[in-house]
Amino acid sequence: MEVIKIALAKGRLAEKSVDLFESIGVVFSQFHEESRKLIFKSDHQQFEMILVKATDVATYVENGAADIGVAGKDTLLESEADVYEVIDLGFGKCRFAVAGKEDTDLNGMIKPRIASKYPKVTTDYFEQKGKQIETIKLNGSVELAPLVGLSDAIVDIVETGGTLKENGLVVLEDMVQSSARLICNKASFKTKGESIQPFIENVQDMIKQSEGEKANA
Amino acid sequence: MKFTQQLPKGVADLFSQDYQLKQQVIEDLKQLNRQYGFRQIQTPTFEYYDLFINLPGTMDTDQMIKMVDHDGKILVLRPDATIPITRMVASSYNDDHPESKLSYVTNIFRMENGESDVFSRSFMQVGVEHFGKACVEVDVEMIALAIESFKKVGLDRFQLDIGQATYFKALIGEAGLSTEDQLIVQEKIEQKNLPELKQLLEEFQLDEEIKNVLLQLPHLFGTSEAVLNQADELAINSKMKEAVQYLRDVYSLVDQLGYGAFISIDLGLINHLNYYTGVVFQGFIYDFGKPVIQGGRYDDLPPYFGMQQDAIGFGVYVDDLIAALKARGLLQNQTSPTILVYAAEWAEGFKVARELRRLGFEVEITKEVPSSNNAFVIDLNTKTIQTPQSNEKKTYTNMEDLTQKVGVIYGSN
Question: What are the ATP phosphoribosyltransferase catalytic domain coordinates in residue numbering (chain A) (predicted)?
């Protein structure tokens, strides 16, 4: 039997995904027991899970190093990976937002500097608005940039807004919503369809079912 | 390493072993294309930028590698094989002989970011184009040739995914969307991104009937005729029905030829290059992450060059194909051993080598005593032939005797 490789982002998304897979009968018992390993076989040996950096999930799947992946829409927008994006899993919800100090007037600035971990999303957003900006690529602690004068504002993902608040920043503009997506390599989808498509359908059914329960509750 | 010795991203050197493997694969494909009646041609490495930008929605102009000519005109390195060939065919088009079957082996240049792929900016494509005839048989022969191309290089697990661009185009044409919005819808369908497609169609406030069919498109795939039946039921106009019927004819003929097992159908496959009009297809190799063959019908392209002609073609991404073959251990160097001529006098050695080379052998001349007993050595001093992997030495009398014996030994190796 062919082994299907699933790439997951280390951390919360992986835990949520493993729970979801468990509910459709794809169990990774080892995942709970050991924490340092990066490769796990499912109990029935049919699936293999690899744990990678969130921003790398799309790369693994696009190149076929993994057949399936769970990635945040935020990372997919940034990477523009050529993959099938089949299911909105509904968890890992967050939104992109432009944030800055309370009195920031971006429209009044000729060419504001925007710092972000997502330079592509940032550039695309302001291009669509027809606003010229200067994008500054950062790798972390983006909230710091407006405070120390590195940038006029930031583009980042916001879940609760807590981090922004603690650093004295506010949301200036809401951008797109993001959530976890089940993605699939296009070649795998076709050449390993017999194994992959039932898996996708099962996940789809499970998501629909749990959404229905939420709606009823 | 010094900057001057580095290579730009997305290009790579090929050393002799890899180059030879590449040539073997290309030769295999070329031979097959010839056997199917395609004649090889060549277009220039660079052409005017205007050739490519005047074709709406075909190529990302940002991805073209540009240069400036003496007179200030912009040139681009060939970013696509099909467009220049169509231009070429149109330039010499003759109504009396509308049909032409052409093949090419060519480098394609694109300004992709090239960080993860050494061949992303300069890659080789082998392909075929068939102008001047549109019928089921021509399309089926193209699909058959694509399948035979995979078989020719030794593959047995692959899939040819066939779509029908007309089905989508006839549907979206009724939606009254701008070209830009149509492309966004197309992108979501090609990603099988149902959640976002749904959201998008809500925003566009499309007609319910059109919307429902669009939402079904990502699901219209599979390996049986059931998909076609479903597509037929969903069709909302005669053009869509015809498109399904055409695909059905293609499918059943392909199946009749014994290729059914390699075929899958996907109405959600439209193809990123907007010039495709009818049957489109992509070839996937099992356990290889990207399509290795891309092709389809592009009847809308020739009219841009003033030629009312139908056309269909496909290209094989040779570098990707080689990577897939290597991963499967399907590529081996077919090297023949080099013959060493050992002579005290170089000139004497050269004369013997020249005769053997004339007969087609690969020969080197040496003045040093050959150390390895794994070599194929002709010792002019002792008039002996030593064969590889044996200590046995054969003697020879004259040149004629030598060439005859070498031929026998060479043939048995």
Answer: 53-204
Residue among A22, A63, A86, A209 at smallest CA distance from B291 = A63
Which amino acid is present at B215?
Answer: L
CA distance B84 to B45: 10
- A79 Cα to chain B: minimum distance (Å): 12
Q: What is the rounded CA–CA span in Å between residue B167 and residue B182? A: 14
User: Hey, is the C-beta of B268 within 8 angstroms of any chain A C-beta?
Assistant: no
Which of B266, B287, B289 lies closest to A62 in CB terms?
B289
Residue of A nearest to B265 (CA): A190
With CB atoms and an 8 Å threshold, state whether B191 touches A85: yes
A85 with B289: Cβ contact below 8 A: no
Q: Is the ipTM of this complex over 0.95?
A: no
Asked whether residue A159 falls in the same domain as residue A193, the answer is no
B193 has a chain A CB within 8 A of its CB: yes
Give the rounded percent of residues in chain B with a pLDDT score beyond 70. 95
A83–B contact, CB cutoff 8 A? yes
pLDDT the model gives residue B60: 80
Phi, psi of B67 (to 5 degrees): -140, 160
Q: How far apart are the first and last CA of chain B?
A: 43
Q: Which domain holds residue A130?
A: 94-177
Give the integer Cα–Cα distance in Å for A78 and B334.
45
Bigger pLDDT: A50 vs A213: A50
> Are A114 and A67 found together in one domain?
no
| Chain A with chain B: Cβ pairs closer than 8 A | 55
Kindly report the CATH number assigned to the domain that includes residue A88.
3.40.190.10
Cβ under 8 Å to B: A residues 25-64: 59, 62-64
- Distance CA(B260)–CA(B255), nearest Å, equals 4
* A140 and A200 both lie in a single domain: no
Counting the structural domains of chain A, the total is 2
Q: Which residues of B touch A64 (CB under 8 A)?
A: 287-290
| Residue A84 and residue A183 in one domain | yes
pTM of the predicted model, to two decimals?
Answer: 0.86
Examine the domain organization and report whether A103 and A75 are in the same domain.
no
Residues A189 and A82 in one domain: yes
- A84 with A98, same domain: the answer is no
Residue in B158, B186, B192, B267 to test binding to A, most A beta-carbons within 10 Å: B192
Percent of the residues in chain B that have a pLDDT greater than 90, as a whole number: 56
For B82-137, how does the pLDDT look when each residue is reduced to its tens digit (9 = 90+)?
A: 999 999 999 988 877 789 999 999 999 988 765 556 678 899 999 999 999 889 99
Q: Which residue has the higher pLDDT, B61 or A74?
A: A74
User: Are residues A147 and A70 both part of a single domain?
Assistant: no
Average pLDDT, rounded, for chain B: 89
Give pLDDT, residue A1. 65
Task: List the helix and strand counts (H, then E) for chain B.
Answer: 13, 17
